[in-house]
Amino acid sequence: MSINLLKFRVLKDKSARGIMLILTGLSLFILVAMGAGLYWKSTTILSDQSLWKLLSSSEWSPMKGEFGFFSFIAGSIYVTVLSVLIALPISLLTALYVTENAKAWVKKLLFPVLDILAGIPPVVYGVWGTLVIVPWIADSVGPKFVEYTNGYTVLAGGIVLSIMIIPLLVSLFVEIFSTVSKDYKDASASLGATRWQTSRFIVLRKALPGIIAAIVLAISRAFGETLAVLMVCGNVINIPRNLFEGCYPLPALIANNYGEMLSLPLYESALMFAALVLFVIIFIFNLLSRILLQEVEKQFKL
Predict the structure, then answer these.
(1) What are phi and psi of 121, to 5 degrees?
(2) What are 292-297's contacts with CB under 8 Å, separation 24+?
(3) N or C: which terminus of the chain carries fewer CB neighbours within 10 A?
(4) Same domain, yes or no: 172 and 228
(5) Over the chain, what is the mean pLDDT?
(6) Would the pLDDT of 283 be above 50?
(7) What is the CATH number of the domain that holds 255?
């Protein structure tokens, strides 16, 4: 009986290991299948025009066969970088306060608020941005810096997107900071360090790899955001010269045009190429960030 039980446990262990291996392979297969599918759908435009021309040109006139994606890529990068620059210091300081200084009632109040903000649909953020942020930029902020702006700008997209990713960053940072051993903090305090010095030189230093991983996740989330950005960026095909001009991010291009242009094979292929560019940019960025993360972990010996 004991031998049969042992055989059953070994069989169950092998079965569980095999199932996990299959599911892991399935995850990798989905990633490869997505990339291959987007590339296959993009072959029409790639055979018609060179890759360099598609990526370096800003001319966009589908009826004339002109498909330049540079302005769309630039718009996506501008909005994403701006949103992270706004959200990162707010999220870091909020998470540090919550983990190092906040009282229990503050935590009980803050976490439900973060959950609510994280669960709000993007369209609600877009509507809020259209009703509040866009007029604020057009009437109050913009006139101080430029002669005219209608409010549908890179700045509006960056602000709305930053508010969308703040709950994600704060939640991740709180979890990361909570893993820093209390022994390090006590040792720092025993040497006469203030709370801010402990947070700056101990907590942030020990949590740096996790911070980098959280930022990468937030950038990936922000770069692919569609609806909220589409509603506040103006959808103007140009390379923005400042924060008070409109832009046209890649996700907005796909969302705005895909359903209407299925009857034009070259246009459809161009939109699939836009999705492929988005896919490749996020993939490369995550790959480079993993390499950077490994180097940081080696440096700090975590």
Answers:
(1) -65, 145
(2) 292/212, 293/209, 293/212, 293/213, 293/216, 296/208, 296/209, 296/212, 297/209
(3) N
(4) yes
(5) 85
(6) yes
(7) 1.10.3720.10
